[in-house]
Amino acid sequence: MAQDIEMAIGGKVYTITLEENDAAKALAARLPIKLQFEDFGAVERIAYLNPKLDVGNAPTRTTPKTGDLTYYMPWGNLAAFTGNFRSSESLVPLGRMSTEAIRALRDSGSADVTLRRKE
């Protein structure tokens, strides 16, 4: 069954529904974590994880859509998509965010973003 986690930005909380794969489980096991996202390209906000996630048997190719939370294996970063993108190798699907959540992340600038277990 899919797991929900929370993303807190500026005092507001949004739900992210995680995929049922090894990489999403590895991310959930690290929570809570505080990150700062930055713009990358026209349709991504990224934040680096240290150490990198163990993706296990998770899919390593996806075609991201607006609201998708993914993990880019070569760089070890989370990538949240604010727009649709092409099919990409080494991009692991982690979860889905609502329109409101992706808008808040897009507008967060360099503010702290906390991912945590759902209360």
UniProtKB/TrEMBL annotation:
Residue ranges of domain Cyclophilin-like in the record? 7-115
One Pfam family of this chain: Cyclophil_like2
Highest taxon of the lineage: Bacteria
Protein name per Swiss-Prot or TrEMBL: Cyclophilin-like domain-containing protein
Q: Can you name the source organism? A: Sutterella massiliensis
